[in-house]
Write a structure and sequence with these properties.
The complex is a heterodimer of chains A (513) and B (205).
Chain A: H1 2-17, H2 26-30, H3 40-48, E1 49-52, E2 58-61, E3 64-67, H4 73-81, E4 92-95, H5 112-128, E5 131-133, H6 143-150, E6 158-161, E7 175-178, H7 181-190, E8 192-195, E9 199-206, H8 215-226, E10 234-239, H9 241-244, H10 248-256, E11 265-267, H11 272-278, H12 287-300, E12 310-315, E13 322-324, E14 332-334, H13 350-360, E15 375-378, H14 380-383, H15 386-396, E16 406-409, H16 414-422, H17 425-431, E17 435-436, E18 457-460, E19 476-479, H18 482-491, H19 504-507
Helix pairs in contact in A: 4-7, 8-10, 15-18
Chain B: E1 8-11, E2 13-15, H1 23-26, H2 46-52, E3 68-71, H3 83-91, E4 95-98, H4 103-111, E5 116-118, H5 121-133, E6 139-142, E7 147-150, E8 153-156, H6 161-168, H7 175-179, H8 182-190
Parallel strand pairs in B: 2-3, 3-4, 4-5
Antiparallel strand pairs in B: 1-6, 6-7, 7-8
Classes of the chains: A alpha/beta (513), B alpha/beta (205).
Chain lengths: 513, 205
């Protein structure tokens, strides 16, 4: 009966998929119950199920809880009001990222509001016995950068954090998702959450990426193809030969952006690439436990005969460098294309497109290449890791930032900064006229001094191009890969990075420049 | 603390048109620089309101005191900030009706006892039209029946059974419920390989 229902749903979604470029009436699909079996998501869900709750929700155990200074203080206050303690202090880990300045990080912070938030985090962690990776730890950084590099994020875990980009940790075969502050309180108090099970959509990406095309482009391609609402009610499993060939940092970029497709969590099945990344990380299991862990992790991957609620296939070979032209990450285009005209869009998307043309000051039908850029930002939880900085440095090396351009590079963590400095990337950027900053979320969301001013247009390796996102109510953002941002920085205008990667040595992914 | 059941939400309504209205627009990030949620109500849609020069629905005198917000598709997408529903709530909103909601936003609303109900595109557009034409009309949202009625209209809406049950039974503040399963929590923790040195586990299947 399940099979029949599934077949019926497949017919429905197959019919809908024809409309992928247009408009998916996903509400039709979202009404049905999850049918998936044998996927990693199903296995992890079953392992962490504590109880069934009245009304049909599930109480799910949370294996790792990450907190930061913005969404946790009110949760601790609620805990205090109710006289509750942290149930598993050893399973919550804190760092400071959103509000930190990326120039001078001496205490007290220049902004008294930022200093108060950091002070509150320090006090809450001390009061409840929680680990905090602060400035003096050598491991401070963006929460979604430090947890993987410490080896905290592991296959088979449920991971929650008061930040929507928690989907990043799905790269390890974890079920990882963002939560709000009341839910942070619930995890602190009970190490669990009341949740509805998601459906699972497998997105299989086959083939190889062309030179100059990166994981960020894959993420933006997926969002553009399926839409920013497609993932509502779904976990996204990223699979296929293209994903299998990706390094862990590329998988993190891909899973990070799942939320921009509306999917609260995205994941990749754990494999040898994942185990090699984790081996010998400070928080990874060691010795005999390591071998037991790998055996267990291997068994978590989705079964060959797993049943999915939906499946989509894409061809990596067709993908080009992508740039957003609008005010949602789904309003994106190949860099060598023209801004879509209203008649190329489904009727339901046209009002938002009109709003985007006006806000972005872009005309339908115009090329995006050549658009003048004011600010270039390389960093964020999407693209602030070592391989991202290498990709950007490869473009910047031997070139110089255009006259009048503000360009800066913000490593995702202190560890990323050290590694980049050890191989001289800071010098490559400095010689090319980029500022080399200290770790933090920086201009991804402008809760710190890094922000756009007025109508400035940024080329940004971050994840959101929403109106006002980068700190100016009228500021404009073009999302792209770190290499594309570097190309814009040295050219002064939006540039197809492939035209700058003319030498064979420039085109390899992930190699040292 | 026992939360109150949420069975109905009554009052005037306010229509806000547009798809994909993200939480950065509902409450811009600069207002998150605080260790409390107080004062957020004044800043709901701050940048949109400034850009609209006083013509934003949240600035129109006839909508002041409205309790039911009517929106379109994918409302509340983007950041997980609970500051977004907190800002709406502190402005005066007690329920949201729309074509669809981003998941984290909807679960944040639930944690505040603020229902999010969905309706078909035609239904929502009709409600928005009626609200705009008669901003002073009185509407009533009924959770058990998942309906909105007002004037002579009766609109069918939907809400998942989990949130519906939690709201109607007054158990939308989940902390107490979750803590009541102490033994089950301990049992689950004892069976997770990664909390037990990866020893003595059965392969998942």
């Amino acid at each position: 009966m399940v099979t029949e229902a599934l077949a019926q749903q497949r017919r429905l979604t197959d019919g809908l998929r024809v409309w992928c470029y247009l408009e998916l009436p996903f509400s039709l699909v979202a009404e049905s119950s999850p049918l998936s079996t044998g996927t990693l998501y199903d296995k992890v869900w079953a392992l962490h199920r504590v109880a069934e709750l009245p009304g049909g929700q599930t109480q799910l155990f949370i294996g790792l809880h990450l907190i930061h200074e913005v969404t946790s203080p009110q949760a601790f206050a609620m805990l205090g009001e109710r006289g509750l303690k942290v149930r598993h202090p050893e399973r919550t880990v804190a760092t400071v990222d959103h509000i930190v300045p990326t120039t001078h990080q001496g205490r007290p912070l220049a902004d008294p509001l930022a200093e108060a938030m950091l002070g509150a985090l320090e006090k809450n962690c001390a009061d409840h016995g929680l680990r905090l990776y602060g400035f003096d730890s050598g491991h401070q950084g963006i929460v979604h950068v430090i947890a993987p590099e410490l080896g905290l994020s592991q296959p088979g875990m449920t991971i929650a954090c008061g930040d929507s980009h928690t989907s990043t940790h799905g790269a390890f075969g974890a079920v990882a998702f963002g939560i709000g502050t009341s839910q942070v309180r619930d995890v602190l108090a009970s190490q669990s959450l009341a949740l509805d099970k998601l459906k699972v959509r497998r997105i299989s990406i086959h083939g190889s990426l062309a030179p100059g095309v990166f994981a960020k482009d894959v993420a933006l391609h997926v969002i553009r193809r399926l839409g920013v609402k497609s993932g509502m009610g779904y976990a996204y499993e990223f699979a296929g030969s293209c994903v299998a060939a990706m390094a862990m940092e590329e998988r993190m970029t891909l899973c990070n952006m799942a939320i921009e497709a509306g999917a609260r969590c995205g994941y990749v099945n754990p494999d040898q690439v994942c185990f090699d990344y984790l081996h010998n990380r400070p928080e990874a299991p060691r010795g005999a436990a390591w071998h037991r862990a790998v055996t267990w992790w291997r068994g978590l991957a989705s079964d060959a005969d797993a049943v999915y609620d939906d499946e989509v296939t894409m061809d990596a070979g067709e993908m080009a460098p992508i740039v957003t032209w609008g005010i949602t990450p789904g309003q994106a285009m190949a860099v060598d294309a023209v801004v879509p005209t209203p008649d190329q869009l489904p009727p339901g998307e046209r009002p938002l497109a009109q709003e985007a043309y006006r806000y972005m000051d872009l005309r339908p039908g115009q090329p995006i290449v050549g658009t003048p850029v004011d600010v270039c930002f390389i960093g964020s939880c999407t693209n602030g890791r070592l391989s991202d900085l290498r990709d950007a440095a490869r473009v910047a090396r031997g070139r110089h930032v255009a006259h009048g351009m503000k360009a800066f590079v913000v490593p995702g963590s202190q560890q990323v900064a050290r590694a980049a400095e050890a191989e001289g990337l800071d010098a490559v950027f400095a010689q090319a006229g980029f500022e080399w900053r200290r770790p933090g979320c920086s201009m991804c969301l402008a809760m710190n001094p890094d922000r756009l001013e007025g109508r400035q247009l940024s080329a940004s390796s971050s994840n959101r191009n929403f109106k006002g996102r980068q700190g100016s109510a009228s500021g404009r953002t073009l999302l792209m890969s770190p290499a594309m941002v570097a190309a814009a920085a040295v050219s002064g205008v939006v540039t197809d990075v492939r035209t700058l990667l003319s030498h064979a040595k420039d085109t390899g992914r992930g190699s040292v420049p | 603390m026992t939360p109150a059941p949420v069975t109905t939400v009554e009052g005037r309504a306010i229509a806000l048109h547009g798809h994909d209205i993200d939480t950065d627009r509902i409450i811009p990030a600069r207002f998150l620089k605080s260790i409390s949620f107080s004062g957020l109500g004044d800043h709901a849609f701050a940048d949109d309101r400034a850009a609209a020069g006083g013509r934003h629905p949240f600035d129109c005198p006839e909508h002041k005191g409205a309790r039911i917000l009517v929106v379109n598709r994918n409302f509340g997408c983007g950041s997980s900030r609970e500051h977004a529903p907190q800002a709406l709530r502190r402005w005066g909103i007690a329920a949201v009706v729309g074509e669809s909601f981003a998941e984290i936003f909807a679960s944040n609303c639930l944690a505040l006892g603020m229902p999010c109900l969905r309706g078909d595109t035609g239904v929502i557009e009709h409600i928005q039209q009626v609200v705009q034409e008669q901003p002073h009309a009185h509407f009533c949202l009924t959770l058990a029946a998942s309906t909105l009625h007002g004037l002579d209209h009766h609109w069918p809406l939907t809400i998942e059974s989990g949130p519906q049950t939690m709201l109607v039974n007054g158990c939308w503040d989940a902390t107490g419920l979750l803590l009541s399963h102490g033994q089950e929590l301990s049992r689950t923790a004892s069976q997770l390989p990664y909390l037990n040195d990866f020893s003595g586990f059965a392969l998942p299947g």
